[in-house]
Amino acid sequence: MAQKPKVDPHVGRLGYLQALVTEFQETQSQDAKEQVLANLANFAYDPSNYEYLRQLQVLDLFLDSLSEENETLVEFAIGGLCNLCPDRANKEHILHAGGVPLIINCLSSPNEETVLSAITTLMHLSPPGRSFLPELTATPVVQCMLRFSLSASARLRNLAQIFLEDFCSPRQVAEARSRQAHSALGIPLPRSVAPRQR
Amino acid sequence: MASSGGELGSLFDHHVQRAVCDTRAKYREGRRPRAVKVYTINLESQYLLIQGVPAVGVMKELVERFALYGAIEQYNALDEYPAEDFTEVYLIKFMNLQSARTAKRKMDEQSFFGGLLHVCYAPEFETVEETRKKLQMRKAYVVKTTENKDHYVTKKKLVTEHKDTEDFREDLHSEMSGFCKAAEALNTSAGNSNPYLPYSCELPLCYFSSKCMCSSRGPVDRASDSSKDGRNHHKTMGHYNHNDSLRKTQINSLKNSVACPGAQKAITSSEAVDRFMPRTTQLQERKRRREDDRKLGTFLQTNPSGNEIMIGPLLPDISKVDMHDDSLNTTANLIRHKLKEVISSVPKPPEDKPEDVHTSHPLKQRRRI
Known about the structure:
The complex is a heterodimer.
Chain A: H1 12-26, H2 30-43, H3 50-55, H4 58-65, H5 71-84, H6 88-96, H7 99-106, H8 112-125, H9 139-148, H10 154-167, H11 170-180
Helix pairs in contact in A: 1-2, 2-5, 4-5, 5-8, 7-8, 8-10, 9-10, 9-11
Chain B: E1 47-54, H1 59-67, E2 72-77, E3 87-94, H2 97-107, E4 111-112, E5 115-116, E6 118-121, H3 128-164, H4 166-175, H5 178-192, H6 199-207, H7 210-229, H8 233-238, H9 244-254, H10 261-269, H11 271-274, H12 279-301, H13 326-345, H14 354-366
Antiparallel strand pairs in B: 1-3, 1-6, 2-3, 4-5
Helix pairs in contact in B: 5-6, 5-7, 6-10
GO biological process, one term (chain A): RNA splicing
ARM repeats (chain A): 57-99, 100-140
Protein name (chain A): Armadillo repeat-containing protein 7
């Protein structure tokens, strides 16, 4: 079972987040890590927490967790990043910390939620206006999006389509399409696991 | 393993209710037992899937119940969706995402006509345009909220610095004389107040004479801009065209801090918004504010007995009337003197019992010989 640090109820939001981060770093239990990461990722949805999260370096914690073997941890970490990346300060931090390659790696995850969060994060990281981040519109990424746009999953199809329409130039899309015809298999499509029916 | 369907209206992983987590550490247990799940903007949707509705023909009641949380654009039953025996599955589309979020939060796990509802999002029903709009709104919301927050944070910093330099302020106030001090207070409050709270500039303005108003209006705007950009209070103070020596002492002693009752007022009026202040600090704040008001009042009214501890309302002075007779005047003076003695002796003992002061104070005052 996870440890139980003594937390004063009056310690406030920052104290609570600090306790979560500490537990994540110290615990040996995978369950506890998942719970704490999910908790942090949900906190990342609310902009009022961003100052605290930056202070506690939770953004780096999320980025580091992207390399974990546990797929659930990756899913929660990229979910957290997806939640907080529309904020300008957070976005800059992620870009400076070299987060883009890590997020692009998530596109090859077998977990559909991970892929969806990764696509959304990349979209939010793109600079405003029609200028594009070169890494985001590199051919492998565009090819990946092209394959996603043919997926059976509606959510994946929609997001991929928005990416191609809003965040790539038509020339890049055409180029990727023509190369795809010749290249070997690219990034595999994710699968979503649904339980058997009764 | 592929899902049982990519088609709409089939079972998806995110529709399945996860088991509640029962291994949470005590300090992070919430009020309701919850599963371990992360909600992102991708998962949330204006479309809600409602499972577990008893098949007793209650579609109308269901929709009415959900409509409490916001306008519903459309709704229909999902007949092909795998459902438990004797239950139905419905899809409800709300006009906006926020209503859907509220409805989900409130209605999930609620009892309805004998059944337990399971409410979840169904983003797979969105069109491309709806998804695009959803993402754009989320981004706009975050950007707007953090921009507003930045200004509250600036104000917060000013307040904490203000508390640190309380002593500085007291010294400064005692050194300078009436109007100059008022002008200085006006400068600091106008210059360092939150640009998003314009009334914080106006409050001290209406306290003091109109002489201050015209000259400080211009610098206020420039000051707000520069404080927004650089948070460099040296620069903001530099814009002022008042007494130079006054300004210099200000800069030297106060540096980056705010010190004036005006800023206090602005801060307390928006206290409820963002700040968490422990009760003892609130009491101290109120006491300090009372003292400042008193000091300002005394400066403007030139009260000779400036060191009195005043509790309760300031009663009007008894007017001195000449009786045109020496003995009568002596008597009157004696009585006045006695009254003054009695009044001044009252505050000392009941520092422990302020209520007694309030009640005994007017009693003694009204005694007539």
